[in-house]
Amino acid sequence: MKKIIYTLFIMISIISCSNKEEKEDKVPKTKIRIGYLYEFAGSSAVAIAKEKGFFEEENLDAELHEFFNGHAAILSMISEEIDFAYIGHAAHNLIIDGKAQILIPNGISKGEKIITAKYNNINTISDLKGKTVATHFGTSGEAMLLAALENEGLTKKDINLLNINITNLENALINKEVDAISTWEPYTTNLNTNDYKMLADITNYSDRIILTSSFVSTLEYINTHRETVSKFSRAILKAMDYRKDHIDEAVKFVSKLNGNSMEAIKEEIDTGIWFSSSDISNACESGDILKWYETQQKVFWHSELIDENVPVTNYIQLELLKSILNTL
């Protein structure tokens, strides 16, 4: 009899444990909505996190939404249509008021270029004086141009400056409507021929201009969903680490996500310095992370996109980032 009772006890215990494990497995995932941009910089981390299951590891159900510029993503986030967003340099001027906050730096751009046609006989930035130059105002292209001019003792008043949408800049130069353009990858596809030449790229002015991209969320969302924010941040940081060591695989994931050809995406790989979690951790320790955003903010101030400089700690969740890095 005792043997039967003992056997029944063991069976009940096993069933009880199984039911408990089943319930734990069925804990509903937290749904999050993420805005990403279509190019490698703006989509690689989220594509990797989705494909490699890093969101699932954090018990997150990630819904991805494509945007074609960071400004639209910010507005969508403020309207509570998405919870998180990737933004490139240009959209950072919209978060300086602190309503949106930087969670993670993604990378530093090195894809901006000033390009002219060889038949123009323009060989240096100084030669642009009195010439017609086009860029897309308020973007990294304009920031790059102003830095290059300032380096030569020139201002935008020394050139005939035109505002042309980034998607049309390339054609403006090809159609001889302008003498030079300040643009960025991947919008130079048709200019990679012997008919055109690069006068300068952003790496020539790293002491004057740093254009950082970031993952952001609203201050309200961060304050009310702190655990979810931490889980999202961990998933993205894991993806960034994976990207650092598996760049070719990252290209495949981006192609699958945004539908662009792998050949085109491969050309974007060298347009930025892509951070890993250790890069960010080191930057937090050295203070470089603050310098990146301080330099970036000065770009906005020189471009007259903001009225005053403010402490970058007003819109960077630095302590939160440090605590998350410590959990990896």
UniProtKB/TrEMBL annotation:
It is found in: Periplasm. Residues 31-240 form the Solute-binding protein family 3/N-terminal domain. SUPFAM superfamilies: Periplasmic binding protein-like II (SSF53850). Keywords: Signal. The keyword Signal applies. Its main location: periplasm. Pfam families: NMT1. Belongs to the bacterial solute-binding protein SsuA/TauA family. This is Nitrate ABC transporter.
